[in-house]
Amino acid sequence: MRQSSLVVVANRLPIDDSVAPDGACEWRSSPGGLVSALHPLLRHTPATWVGWAGGTGPAPALPDVDRVRMHTVPLSSEDLRDHYEGFANSTLWPLYHDAVEQPEYHRRWWEAYQRVNQRFAEATAEVAERGAVVWVQDYHLQLVPGLLRELRPDLRIGFFLHVPFPPPELFMQLPRRAELLRGMLGADLIGFQRAQAAHNFAQLVAKVLDLPATDRRVGVGDRVVRIGAFPVSIDTAEMAALAGRPDVAARARRLRHDLGDPDHVILSVDRMDYTKGIEQRLKAYSELLASGHVKVRDTVLVQVAVPSRERVTQYQILRDRVEREVGRINGEFGRVGEPAIHYLTQPFDRAELAALYRIADVMAVTPLRDGMNLVAKEYVAARVDDTGTLLLSEFAGAAAELPQAYLVNPHDLEGLKQKLLTALQADPADVTARMRAMREHLHRNDIHAWARSYLSALDDGGSLLNHISTTG
Ligand code: ADP
Ligand code: F6P
User: What are the residues whose beta carbons fall under 8 Å from the beta carbon of 6, sequence distance 6 or more?
Assistant: First the structure.
């Protein structure tokens, strides 16, 4: 077994096998913030990525991607149902997102979560060199740091949670809350998106495990586990360069023309997820059309909603409801050749996404709760001419960093309608000033700065930064 000095462990690999319409097998990256964030970092770095390839059955052997070795962990159909769709996405995901859908608790799911976490820990222990750095990602694998430390005490272990970490009132619902906290504490450093999440975690370990904890450190026997906020970001320069490419500019012009050269284009790009506030946004838009504040001929809404976690009931219900509502709105307010909403469920390549960002006069990012929301940051990075208005939910992690956006509470329907109208009618000088400030922030705080700050905290003055490309 070939071993690496840097191992990233994440539920999903950065490539996914999918069947092309002609029946051929092709490889592509799956939409989602985690892969978008880590891809630019690892592209130039020799490392191993331990993860799941997206199917069931024996683990396929995958080719290296750039300098990253793919080490596949197999999931059976029971693991898929009980670990990925069950404990990860029907217990933890809704619980961590303010319980906007009801979290479900089943003992069988917890058993699968333990089993799969154990398998990931064993696979990681096999591929990590002596003294290697292991970087465990996200809520699917919260037991891995603890399990891995038992197997390989020589490793330096970091854990990063991409999603929100909930307040004690919610987390305390979890039947196996103590085990989950102990699992995370196997890491040397636990990173969260926001300082509030680190605070929630410190309160919980003090209360549930009776450990000494501040918002920066937790004492675990003779070890100190550091905790803190490390807001994840994007490769700002890369997105700006892509958006500035002449072919992308030409594609943007074509797209705008195909939309009928309207006065205003509103864009939303989401995974089809109930945390993203898609239904609330459609309702607001529909009421603005009904009241005549927005007219189909002047304004178009482009809603990209790529299907996600499609076998989970709550996601199926959401998709049905969204599609019914889009159909109703188009039936009621559209005209021949002029739909009120352009609704797209396809995955797009980065250049097409950049072209879409370029045509969006208003980008509506209105999740009910989101760890960060990289789409908001990608939009800002793509606005190379400093135009464009970002309508951003207060409940996205990105809001803490981008206060110049038009911030909105997506639960407040009247407020959402009002903010959308304000964004559509914003004064161009004000729009430019806000966009410029947000772009400057993202140029300073890009994904390379994120990796530098996380790894130097994990490192404690050592040489970890040599492991990874943090300069772009
Ligand atoms: P999440 O992690 O919840 O999916 P983020 O907004 O943080 O949310 O990240 C979503 C990522 O997926 C972004 O990098 C975005 O560009 C990408 N993405 C979203 N929709 C699509 C799509 N239709 N095709 C390709 N990539 C997409
Ligand atoms: O951060 C949230 C997250 O679960 C990421 O781990 C992943 O990139 C994204 O959402 C997509 O989810 P899934 O891997 O379930 O398709």
Answer: 45, 46, 47, 48, 132, 133, 135, 467, 468
